[in-house]
Amino acid sequence: MAQPKKSAGKIRVDQALVARDLAESRTRAQALVMAGVVFSGETKLEKPGQQIAADAPLDVRGRDHPWVSRGGIKLAGALEAFALDPAGAVAMDIGSSTGGFTDVLLTHGAVHVFAVDSGTNQLAWKLRSDERVTVLEQTNARHLTPDLIDRDCNWLVCDASFIGLAKVLERPLSLAATDARAVVLVKPQFEVERHEVGKGGVVRDGALHRRVCDEARAWFESQGWTVDGIVPSPITGPEGNVEFLLAARRGNVAPCHVPEPDTAPA
Fold it and tell me: Locate the Ribosomal RNA methyltransferase FtsJ domain: which residues (predicted)?
């Protein structure tokens, strides 16, 4: 249990979680509370805005999400932020890894997912054994072919690491259906120049965040896609990097809801 810092008065539960390093952001803290895993002593705290004594005991118990990996929180957050529904979708999951994004898609009604990753034996067994999943491991997304992606994919999601979006997504985007939607994670740490990455592999400069988001938007548009919006991910990357979720579409696909104002860095 985290030890309270000495302070007087009252504080919101979500603010207290951040202050005590039990959550990396207010958004994340609110998700923890809504998941029912935040306690003060033996009392479950059910409202992020609830006022508690600044010196009240506070801890997080158990998992706060149902997905096979923490990555699922990111895509679930995007679906909520953009009011998107993948029910009935056939999707490509680029950089599937353990399968957090795939898990979210299937849980929300996707009928099939092509899980693409250059690694091996990473995808969770419950997804690997699901007949709705085509496992394409040890597969470089830049080398995908219509023989591998043998259905029209009207959704594409991506959570790739150690490579820029323009390199990893050019081929998958070209294989997507004429009418398609994309939700991708923009990771500044893999988009900026090496000398721009700070200590511990973290990009902290807001100006770099803005530049990366602008470049991602421009690149998608150069590929014939319309970017509806960019929002911060509800959680940071493993090293504490701020990441962003971009929603795009092409063809006869309706614009999605965009939070007002667009919450990409300005």
Answer: 67-249
Mind listing the domains of the chain with CATH numbers? 10-60 (3.10.290.10), 71-250 (3.40.50.150)
Closest CA to 209 of 181, 230, 183, 235: 230
pTM higher than 0.85, yes or no?
no
pLDDT band per the 50, 70, 90 thresholds, residue 68: confident
Say if residues 244 and 209 touch (Cβ distance below 8 Å): yes
Cα separation values, 132 from 106, 122, 123, Å = 8, 17, 14
Residue 261 token pair: 């104002």
Distance CA 218, CA 3 (A): 46
Q: What is the pLDDT at residue 174?
A: 97
d(CA 228, CA 247): 6
Written as one letter, the residue type at 169 is L
